[in-house]
User: Which sequence fits this backbone?
């Protein structure tokens, strides 16, 4: 009955937790996974536990609503997959700098423009967080209530999100000019300043993960991970 | 040499040109200062000379503009950084957004131009050293102060080793020591034969480094000549430009009925 949970959890243990332990980022990883998966996880559990249409085995009743074991198992399967996805994404962001990503992608033949987009998107998150913090402080100085009740906080979102997005869009032209002025559109290969370390163990681990994909698909097709 | 003849530029959608009927030459090794009030066309001039307008920002350019004898309009965008380097007043928007360290940030331009690795490292280290910011090499550029970012942005231009440099208020966020470092770097570049056009509100810096000064008003050149003459022109104040401290002091001497020659004597 718990087969759909075991697969993602084994995957998380082998492909996320072990590398995270080696990289010594288990604690920030768990914090990030909780932040990413918890809000959706709670709603998934509540909805499926109480409203799973094929539920037969009753766990408890609250008025007209019935919680079923099938709903709980399905919800846990979804949560396990959420944890696997958010864990993999968090591990990537915690262990890969933008520079490493750009250089490694280019080293593997990816066009510099694509490598830049991938890398800049990694860098954009902290920049947007900084911008949002600055705008929040500025709006607070003008009397915006960001620490009151839920209603006040919701009303405060628009005066903060608007300038964050508009400011970021306004910077696009300046950023484009700055990049063009530094030869970004020049065709041909860039000079790579350094090569990221890539040990034999890392290469073996990567290949094992790649080989694990068809293995999991085959195991699933064979009914071993049903 | 940058040459501009009968040169006008209108931003896309604008009702009037931002630059009108400009004629000037920026010779090799020459430093030309540009002054003027806000909206006088200084930044637009920088964008056009660096080839970014109209290529990137749109608009309409008329007249002749050549870089070292070649028609600038015929050059492709990626050919320009090796010829004309440009620095903006807001250093934060000049960061590549992909460099984890200042060293990588400064190396970004020449790396794009395919400069061989050993030379790339030498150029980057040299550019950092010339602005006395080698100690920032390992820092995250996004976490620097505005002034430090401005020096990094200028170092990024120097590392490209362009034949011409256009700087739009390069010291806007710098303290006096940072401004002096930029002045040193400009003098050194000019000594190497690089032509420099620098837009500045700090006329003291222009008094120190510029050979000539151009004053813009409403997109037109209204004053042009040797730096000492233009910066000492009484009309400069009417254009919204504060004269250098030396000029203001001399005028204060005259207003107080003192002989300004005593200033020269005191300096000697």
Assistant:
């Amino acid at each position: 009955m718990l087969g759909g949970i075991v697969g993602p959890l084994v995957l998380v243990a082998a492909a996320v937790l072990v590398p995270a332990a080696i990289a010594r980022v288990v604690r920030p990883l768990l914090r990030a996974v909780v932040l990413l998966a918890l809000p959706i996880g709670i709603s998934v559990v509540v909805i499926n536990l109480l409203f799973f249409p094929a539920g037969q085995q009753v766990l408890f009743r609250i008025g007209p609503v019935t919680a079923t074991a099938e709903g709980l198992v399905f919800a846990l399967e979804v949560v396990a997959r959420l944890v696997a996805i958010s864990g993999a994404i968090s591990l990537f962001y915690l262990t890969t700098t933008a520079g490493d990503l750009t250089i490694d992608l280019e080293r593997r033949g990816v066009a510099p423009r694509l490598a830049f987009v991938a890398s800049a998107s990694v860098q954009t998150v902290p920049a947007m967080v900084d911008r949002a913090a600055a705008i929040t402080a500025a709006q607070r100085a003008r009397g915006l209530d960001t620490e009151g009740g839920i209603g006040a906080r919701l009303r405060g979102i628009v005066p903060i999100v608007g300038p964050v997005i508009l400011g970021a869009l306004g910077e696009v032209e300046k950023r484009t000019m700055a990049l063009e002025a530094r030869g970004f559109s020049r065709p041909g290969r860039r000079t790579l300043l350094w090569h990221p370390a890539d040990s034999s163990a890392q290469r073996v681990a990567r290949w094992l993960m790649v080989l694990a994909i068809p293995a999991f698909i085959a195991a699933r097709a064979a009914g071993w991970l049903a | 040499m940058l040459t501009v003849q009968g040169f006008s530029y209108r931003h896309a959608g604008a009702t009037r040109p931002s630059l009108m009927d400009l004629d000037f030459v920026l010779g090799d090794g020459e430093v030309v200062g540009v002054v003027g009030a806000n909206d006088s066309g200084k930044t637009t001039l920088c964008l056009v000379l660096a080839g970014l307008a109209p290529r990137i920002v749109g608009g309409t350019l008329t007249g002749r503009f050549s870089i070292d004898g070649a028609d600038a309009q015929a050059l492709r965008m990626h050919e320009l950084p090796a010829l004309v380097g440009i620095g903006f007043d807001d250093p934060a928007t000049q960061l590549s957004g992909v460099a984890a360290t200042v060293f990588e940030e400064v190396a970004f331009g020449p790396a794009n131009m395919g400069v061989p690795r050993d030379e790339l490292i030498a150029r980057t280290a040299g550019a950092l050293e010339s602005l006395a910011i080698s100690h920032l090499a390992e820092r995250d550029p996004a976490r620097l102060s505005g002034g430090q970012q401005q020096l990094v942005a200028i170092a990024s231009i120097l590392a490209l080793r362009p034949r011409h440099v256009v700087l739009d208020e390069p010291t806007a966020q710098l303290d006096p020591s940072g401004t002096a470092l930029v002045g040193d770097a400009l003098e050194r570049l000019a000594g190497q034969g690089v032509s420099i056009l620098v837009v500045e509100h700090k006329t003291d810096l222009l008094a120190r480094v510029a050979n000539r000064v151009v004053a813009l008003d409403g997109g037109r050149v209204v004053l042009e000549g040797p730096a000492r003459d233009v910066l000492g022109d009484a009309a400069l104040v009417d254009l919204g430009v504060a004269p250098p401290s030396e000029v203001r002091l001399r005028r204060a001497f005259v207003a107080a009925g003192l002989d300004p020659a005593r200033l020269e004597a005191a300096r000697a």
Q: What stands out?
A: Chain B has one domain: 2-267. Chain B is about 35% helix and 20% strand. Residues 81 and 162 of chain B are 7 Å apart (CA to CA). Chain B touches chain A through 42 residues (CB under 8 Å).
